[in-house]
Amino acid sequence: MIAKILIKRCFKPGKTKQILALLNDLRAHAMRQPGYISGETLVQNASPHCMVIIGTWQSIEDWYCWRDSNERNKYEAMIELYQERPTEYEELLLGTPLTSKDIGEKS
């Protein structure tokens, strides 16, 4: 099932060139991973130092493999140096139907 991963980052002012280089390298490496479909980077209009990256993967397992890889974690450590706060993640599955069990209803 297709997975959409929302990655929220806010950066400290300055060092834009270094930040963009790291993000571009990270995206280039992600694109070579099994299951990677696409990525989008959205910048907040009111706070241009904050962004949301939407990654699309063939499965949540493909994302987990990349998320937990040494290669990705190396980039994450470098990116964190420029961030105002820790990265936030949200993992979503495309078209997953809710069942009463999923939302805690009694049968």
Helical proportion, percent range: 25-40%
The counted number of beta strands is 4
What is the CATH topology assignment?
Alpha-Beta Plaits
Structural class: alpha+beta
Overall mean confidence score, pLDDT? 92
Beta-strand share of residues: 25-35%
Architecture blueprint of SSEs:
Elements: E1 3-10, H1 16-31, E2 36-43, E3 50-57, H2 60-67, H3 70-80, E4 88-93
Antiparallel strand pairs: 1-3, 1-4, 2-3
Please supply descriptive tags for the structure shown above.
single chain, 107 residues, alpha+beta, Alpha-Beta Plaits, 33% helix, globular
Q: What report would you give on this structure?
A:
Helix content is 33%, strand content 28%. It has 107 residues and is of the alpha+beta class. It has one domain (3-93): Alpha-Beta Plaits. Strands 2-3-1-4 form a 4-stranded antiparallel β-sheet. A hairpin with a 6-residue loop joins strand 2 (36-43) and strand 3 (50-57). The longest helix is centred in the first third of the chain and has 16 residues, at 16-31. It starts with a strand and ends in a 14-residue tail after the last strand. The model has no long low-confidence stretch (mean pLDDT 92).
Gist of the model:
By secondary structure, this protein is α+β, with helices and mostly antiparallel strands. It contains 3 helices and 4 strands; from the N terminus they run βαββααβ. It has helices at residues 16-31, 60-67, 70-80; strands at residues 3-10, 36-43, 50-57, 88-93.
